[in-house]
Amino acid sequence: MSGSNVRFIVEAGGRLSGRIRVPGDKSISHRSIMLGSLAEGVTHVSGFLEGEDALATLNAFRAMGVQIEGPDQGRVTIHGVGMHGLKAPTAPLDLGNSGTSMRLLAGLLAGQGFDVVMVGDSSLSKRPMRRVTAPLAEMGAQIETTDNGTPPLKIKGGQSLKGMFYKMPMASAQVKSCLLLAGLYAEGRTSVVEPAPTRDHSERMLQGFGYQVDVDGATASVEGGGKLTATDIEVPADISSAAFFMVGASIADGSDITLEHVGINPTRTGVIDILRLMGADITLSNEREVGGEPVADIRVRSAKLKGINIPEALVPLAIDEFPVLFVAAACAEGQTVLTGAEELRVKESDRIQVMADGLIALGVDATPTPDGIVINGSPLQGGRVNGHGDHRISMAFAMAALRAAGAIEIDDCANVATSFPGFESLAANAGLGIQRKG
Ligand code: SPQ
After folding, report:
1. Judgement on whether residues 241 and 183 belong to the same structural domain of the protein
2. Are residues 158 and 258 in the same domain?
3. Is 320 one of the catalytic residues?
4. H or E segment at 361?
5. If you measure from the C-alpha of residue 408 to the centroid of ligand 1, how many angstroms do you get, rounded to a whole number?
6. Residue where a domain stops, chosen among 202, 219, 234
7. Is the C-beta atom of 29 inside 6 A of ligand 1?
8. pLDDT in tens, 183-225
9. Ligand 1 pocket, 415 CB below 6 A?
């Protein structure tokens, strides 16, 4: 939970080495609970992310009457209640810091027979929800937000939803997934068209649970009224968590690290493409498919990075990795320019502004723009920066210390536990001089 009491103090210098496995994929963990709960039969999940965000989803389904065992070392057993077996929760569902939980649940709950209220922490309470409530209303849902379009969301049950054809105004896997989940309960066909490819874990997992999803280019469609059949899910390690070590190893001289069993779904690998364009030394081995998702071991050795113009087509494929990619850009020779990434401003924090502020505090020449940033590679000083309760900001600045002239102190780091429980100890084992205070 957000708290300004947790601080990271990270020594300057060092290098990353060894073989590590980062925790399970957050996006896939959320979806495994949602679909497992609605399935008929018992779903066994392994590699589940025991982070606060995925646990918020798990607790929400428990509150709606689903019997869920675990998590125990990444193992979760879900006794599915079927498409119409959820029960009204007795209190508002608290989704903490998790945008994915709230937006996907908005779709899934819009077609239930009971009312639900969804609330979040101070960060989630500022995030835009009209991107889901407006198209859901067109399908027949009744959902109230604040006047600003932010949480809490009050969903009125008992509405009959109609399928629709929706062209998304922004590239968002959460909006796409929300509408497909609502589509399971709608009469007829729901089709969602995306302006650029976004993570397709929902489509893959629905198919894994035996639900037909038709994907035709940029359009994903489902017919309402089907059912899900329980299955077993092995969650790969999260490429978004692995990304911190990819950048850390790239920028710290003498590094050589292997990240095991990482999900390399092509809708998530923009970070590898961008780092390679910058000159990073990244090799994939042991490529295989696990439960419908491709995985690989990723070896990263230090390399001299150069600044680039980041191709806009890669932006949605690396959307969560930009905070740490900005650190790579600060350590690169020359200029890096990011455009077409205005979505970064509505994440757990305004990731363009807070990264620019922190980098500038560390002596980097960084200029935020409305839809991106311009960073000129610069020597990094030590100093004090703020994580703004955003897990990815805190971890990005922790990695920056590998190349800084002095220690970096990072305030407001408690939310690292939303996506990466155990970050400090794993990073310390790999060679980062990190200490947690508070
Ligand atoms: O769940 P939340 O808080 O929105 O998490 C983030 C993150 O950095 O962990 C975004 F801030 O990841 C999103 C991601 O940015 C997870 C996600 C998903 O699982 O569907 C999709 C992306 O969001 P969006 O808004 O682009 O659809």
Report:
1. no
2. no
3. yes
4. helix 351-361
5. 27
6. 234
7. no
8. 999 999 999 999 999 999 999 999 999 999 999 999 999 999 9
9. no
